[in-house]
Amino acid sequence: MSIYAYIFTMALTTYLIRVIPLTVFRRPIKSVFLKSFLHYVPYACLTAMTFPAILTSTAALLSGAAALMVAVLLAYRGKSLLTVSLAASAAVMVTEFLLAFVK
Amino acid sequence: MNWSEYKKGVHTGLPVGLGYFSVSFGFGAMAIAQGLSALNATLISATNLTSAGQFAGLTLIVAAGTLMEMIMTQIVINSRYSLMSLALSQRMGQRIGFFPRLLIAFFNTDEIFALAMDRKEPLTVPFLLGLGTLPFFGWTGGTLMGALAGSVLPSDIRAALGVMLYGMFIAIVVPPAKQEKPVLITVILALVFSCLFAWVPQLKSVSAGISIVLCTVAAAAIAAWRFPIAEEQEAAV
Fold it and tell me: Residue B108 is inside which H or E element, if any?
């Protein structure tokens, strides 16, 4: 399938999700379950996408694990998005640099 | 066009624009590492303007998933935007008409939404468009730069840059999980489900897009059932 079919489909779906409540359905959501569900969706989704995929996203299992640990630790200490992202990336590079020596 | 309002919006959006630039650099590098062209990676960012949805979309493109899977995945992952759009719509009031809304909707990301809702003065169309300007160029430009850098860098460096996106996801999830027990439980549930799909032999054949959708829906539904938001707020008092 053409990559443009994918890109068009994902862009249109995302846009419709954003535009319909802003133009057509302007009433607030009343269902407590639905409101709660939508509140928890980002956390569930980001977690499912990150783990265990992060472990296999780099050249070695160990460097992916290092990125995970560094990111969780810094995020737990309340560091910014940028700091956490850069530190995770640096952890991968340092670990793989060290692994090259071990080999 | 009220340029003073537009400028205020641009100014407010500056930190988000810088943040988006660096994170989307990771997306660009990752897209290249997975075989996309720099142009297509940039096109995805310019038309979607969403981190998690694009990331899942990239996974599906690489795995040659179906368009139905793509639609379902985007609906589940981006469903939170519908809630934000509803909230933003209430906040905008009746003064802002139908056509500006068509444009403003495109820029409704987590961070832009947060900044818009944070404003004390009434929201105006030029302010909201100004707010979206730098994040849009930051996100698109960062993707292009990341993709170009990714094309010339060796594959292990590309993978290290790609990890930035995971770093951002972790930075979004951990602080609220630390503070709110229901969020922590949602995260743990999603972790367990995600590992099941990755490691249990019978579940491994489920495609990447569908497994993300199933993990998300299951974890969020259990959390919503056990910890409805109204009750949780009462319990916190």
Answer: none
